């Protein structure tokens, strides 16, 4: 008998919550970006939070109080403050906190199952994309081209919520359900991490499918983590007699990946262009926006950080270095955190993130918390994801006090769809806590 968890109301609600927070962080449609939908999903999650009588942690109340005090400091310091944007970011943080407090241990299995489904959707569509991009672009963009409220970058972006085509340099790359291939690979990396840890670093069908999807993204970030950091993580946690073989194989694989055009050469080009921000700052031509790139963004943000190293600028973007003629878009999440929150906020965010992953790995007796933190650093260095609700989950994951029994049983129920009897599951707690 298959698991009846799909018919469980609590599980269905948890599944919806995970779907919503992933969707809100895809950045591939107007609904994913709109503040109005953020409010709607926050209200929905808040209602479930209240209905299940979940208690708010004291530390979150302290954090909110400090956040308001910090914004008051910015107001006094600058003579003004972007309270609207600051409040909106706070709402996203609370949304992430509420969601993870509700779904608890089920988050990991639900997330892997969801991403696996979306990957299975993307792979055949990606093959279609390689065969006839223009036709698929018309099909995928049918909603946004015919419903005015869904219009969003229709000239170069087509999206049907579970699949995206992005024409700006991604004709032969898989964007999956995200706004671009790099974004898709970021979501895949979290799914791979969950799969590796939950399956005790054994090779399985879903892991192979995830890696195949990573290859289709041709993302430098994805390749660095999937083929350099994760192999080290794998070797660190394997007890197999083949550890020498794995070490040699993964070393050769890492060298090969770095030798690719999207590896060392691309990284070298990025580093060589680190001073491009000077040229862009001095350029008098007017554009709506221009992307700085990873390393120029880092240098510009770091220079701003040095001017206000303790608490940063908050969300007063007009106070940070900017071109007089063109809005220069920062794309480096690591340096953006430094500039926004200063060293204090930077330390808190990465400490909470480390604690979150460390608490998860500890349950499985897995090593490599700092490696996973480096994974997050690589992801953030390439993308400014820090204001996306899904990634904010890892600010608060440590606070839910993960239970080993629930975590492992839920993985069997949700991923492998085993029956309750087959794993002799006797929940000692209310379903709400599971």
UniProtKB/TrEMBL annotation:
InterPro entries: O-antigen_ligase-rel_domated (IPR007016). Residues 208-349 form the O-antigen ligase-related domain. The keyword Transmembrane helix applies. The chain crosses the membrane at residues 30-50, 59-77, 83-102, 114-131, 183-201, 208-237, 243-264, 333-352, 372-398. It is found in: Membrane. Keywords: Membrane, Transmembrane, Transmembrane helix. Its main location: membrane. The keyword Transmembrane helix applies. One of its GO terms (cellular component) is membrane. It is a multi-pass membrane protein. It comes from the Bacteria. This is O-antigen ligase-related domain-containing protein. It comes from Aquiflexum gelatinilyticum.
